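Researcher: Predict the fold of Outer membrane protein beta-barrel domain-containing protein.
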Amino acid sequence: MTLRLLINTSLVISLLLCASVGFAQDNLNESESQSESSSTFFDSEDRQRFFAMTIGGHKPFTSGDNFMGEGLRGKSGIDFKVQMYVYKHFFIGLATGSSYFDVKNQELLGSYRTSRIAENYVYLGYEFLPAENFRLGLNIAVDGDLNYKNSGFSTSDIAEQHDSARLNRYGLYLHYELAKHFMIYFDYAYNVSKTNIDAPSQLEDFFRKGKYSTIGIGLVFTIGSRDLISRFLN
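Model: Structure tokens for Outer membrane protein beta-barrel domain-containing protein follow.
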């Protein structure tokens, strides 16, 4: 089973399970009187969540002396993520999305005009609480893959070209709480693509890695008010 299929299947299962568990737990918690709890930069019982889903878009920016930095120009992208808070504000997440590029230098890359990267990864992170209504998150991909689809070839005998790569991703985000379970987010991520592209020996270094950053915006929906471990301990 590929990572992409595994993530897509896990996303559906996570949504169903977490929605049912989260809403049931919320109904119990909200029916009880709530006591005051302390809130710090690292932790807040009042602002604890169980499960979050984000959907949004981003703008990719290529960089560096590599095939992406020299040959591609970022256009747009889409993101979909789900994350579960395992203990307090430490979370694990699954993500899928796509980034779209125009070819700005066909002499370097080949006779195609556009490239799409399908992104799938598992990530870990922690969320900080710098101020009321704000959440600052840091995350890193622990397992990820990319699938390139190059299209728009000038020759009619080639419709599409596909390549694969491993993904290293480092990200941060800022959430602003519009309501208890509804937020808007802004995020930034730095991505390194380690490819399997076949290239002449003198060009191996140029095609071995591709680097691009993304700046995104979107919506966040959360459920639950207790992390996973606390649900089982209490």
